[in-house]
Records
---
Amino acid sequence: MPHTKAAKAFTALIIESFQWNGRLLSAGDRLTKPLGLTSARWQVLGAITAQNLPVAQIARNMGLARQNVQRLADAMEKDGLIEYATNPDHKRAKLVCLTRRGRATMKKLDTLQSTWANRITDKISATEIQTAYALIKKLRSRLEADRLPPKPPGKPSAK
């Protein structure tokens, strides 16, 4: 079946998103390096800035593998950025919480990120960015709802 015009545009957006993600992670690594962080650690810290969460919930929220988040959280605990706390809703799934050092690190990172974001978005309107955000959010929602695997080409559908 040939792509519709929207499907072709979506495919191009996917490829651009892969490239953008790579550049974004590299930029995040450069931004966080002076603080002894990586983009991956930043993601975990950012996920718990507003609310303490168990590892599995952080992974679900960020679209990451639970095992990777656990590995990062354990390393950040050793570095004093996070600590584990009892979860009143679950006996075994501890909550991941920022420590005082973790909050201070996030405050410094917020300043660095603000300066960087202002530079990157110079001469781009907030409306353009909000439109892109709305589209990506809508597509993410559609992807989350789409649980059917694609049909292999050339195979008849089962009746």
---
Amino acid sequence: MNDMSVPVQSLKTLMISMVSAVLLAFFILIAFIGPAEYAIDPTGIGKALGLTALAKPVTQSTKAIVACPVGEQLAQWQNIVKITIPAHSGLEYKLYADKNAALSYAWASDSADLFVDFHGEPAGNTTGYFKSYGEQTVAQAAGDLIAPFAGTHGWYWKNDSNHAVQVTLKTKGQYKIKGLM
């Protein structure tokens, strides 16, 4: 007779395994996730591995210095960012603004007209509603916005050309950068 008994784990072994798994998960949270996501690094492991750099936002002055063309007056704009839109593709760039916050912008493509939809989505809305402030196909645009509601406001650019197009976006006002979406 062939006895095919399955080994049964004792309650003690199962408890040790469960406690070990919880402790390992806690260690991973403290040593890796905390530094990478929230810049909280009580162990110093995150800094040693370079994980804390992932949680740091790009400072406005760094972005301006890196992306600013020669001769641009830095004081005129809070942020200047260069966005590459691949051929036959589209990208969105968003800012978060509170209701009645003011912002100004200017953007220009380096080589082609782009379809652009400047629009906003109210914070917390799950219906998919958005308000379009304007759609057009142009190589550049500039303007001002007083946010009609708290939420994200930004641009969707569509590049129908056969080559990548670089957009230089300059902004200033009362907002937080959400970035590419």
